[in-house]
Design brief:
The chain is an alpha/beta fold. It has 2 domains: 163 residues, Rossmann fold (3-Layer(aba) Sandwich), CATH 3.40.50; 141 residues, Rossmann fold (3-Layer(aba) Sandwich), CATH 3.40.50. It has 8 helices and 14 strands. A 7-stranded mixed sheet has the order 10-9-8-11-12-13-14. The radius of gyration is 20 Å and the shape is globular. The two termini are 15 Å apart.
Length: 336
């Protein structure tokens, strides 16, 4: 798979502008550098009552603007900041506004799983559109149907190539493990890339962020193997660590976990450090301070080049599909 473009190209068409919110400025800076440009000068601050104030300090009239802001924790703060950025640009006579959301907050509430509950993934889509977004760029949303919640163009990328490259370069007798039935397609595709076997964990969720392991399908692939548990996100890591412990009891050799989004809320670091997980590999879709004292097991891979290539293709009105299609099978990366 090839998803990197050659360096040093000159962007054409209307002027490209990259704007960053405060949620993950380091990622935005790396994207801008990849595109041979600088971040647009923006003031983002708080009034005394904590209301958000934003001012763009240079002209963006007629520009093709990309706003980079994951709506991660604190989700409400980062989402509101993104909405105000979009509204600011809408009133500044830009040519087009694309919201680049590496992590789509509220994405797990994508349907009415119980009576009298909201579908906040759709609500957020409506808010972004009303605020001024004319195009959306997403990365590994929790449910693919979220793309259909928008009435504007949506480009959806997968981080699978970045995660695959990491494990391809390491040596191991790998078996890929899906932590639940919903992730089987992702695990199957990852296993095919690594040319290895897979297993599935059957679990039942009784409380939010808590699950009980019920059964391991493909148990004969576990003993003495190096396992890769793959998921779209890691939140409290409670379920992940319970899965790792269950797999260890079945004779697994080394147990790794990988996911696109490292949410790492509540006691996630404590859970990971007290588990049989050898390493947890995530991308920088959500900012994470790798220098913190409890992060020895965490490996951060950057998706800046993937997002930069997508932004350039959108800016040039070129197809984005080469970034998430497997050249051999012509199937979506992340799905088989």
């Amino acid at each position: 798979m090839q998803y990197f473009e050659k360096e040093g190209r000159k962007l054409t068409g209307s002027e490209l502008k990259i704007i960053s919110g405060t949620a993950n400025r380091i990622l935005a800076e790396r994207i801008a550098a990849k595109l041979n440009t600088e971040l647009t000068d923006v003031t983002i601050c708080r009034f005394a009552d904590n209301e958000i104030f934003i001012q763009i300090n240079e002209s963006v009239r007629g520009a093709d603007v990309f706003v980079i802001q994951p709506t991660s924790n604190p989700a409400n703060e980062n989402l509101m900041e993104l909405l105000i950025l979009l509204d600011t640009l809408k009133r500044a006579s830009v040519k087009r506004i694309t919201a680049v959301i590496p992590y789509y907050g509220y994405g797990r509430q994508d349907r009415k799983a119980q009576p009298r509950t909201p579908i906040t993934a759709k609500l957020v889509a409506d808010l972004l559109t009303v605020a001024g977004a004319q195009r959306i760029l997403l990365l590994d949303v929790h449910a693919l149907q979220i793309q259909g919640y928008f009435n504007i163009p949506v480009d959806h990328l997968f981080a699978t190539p970045v995660l695959f490259d990491y494990f391809r370069k390491t040596k191991g007798n790998y078996t890929v493990v899906s932590p639940d039935a919903g992730g089987v397609e992702r695990a199957r595709f990852f296993a095919r890339l690594l040319r290895t076997n897979m297993a599935i964990i059957d679990k039942r969720r009784y409380e939010k962020n808590k699950a009980t392991i019920m059964n391991i399908i493909g148990e004969d692939q576990i003993k003495d193997a190096d396992l890769i548990i793959i998921d779209d996100m890691i939140d409290t890591a409670g379920t992940l660590c319970a899965a790792a412990n269950a797999l260890h009891e079945k004779g697994a050799k080394n147990i790794y976990a990988c996911a696109t989004h490292g949410v790492f809320s509540a006691n996630a670091m404590k859970n990971i450090n007290n588990s049989f997980l050898k390493k947890v590999v995530v991308t920088d879709s959500i900012y994470f301070n790798k220098n913190r004292s409890d992060a020895d097991k965490i490996e951060i891979l950057s998706i800046f080049s993937l997002l930069a290539d997508a932004i350039e293709r959108i800016h040039k009105d070129r197809s984005v599909s080469p970034l998430f299609l497997d050249a051999e099978s012509n199937h979506l990366v992340g799905l088989e």
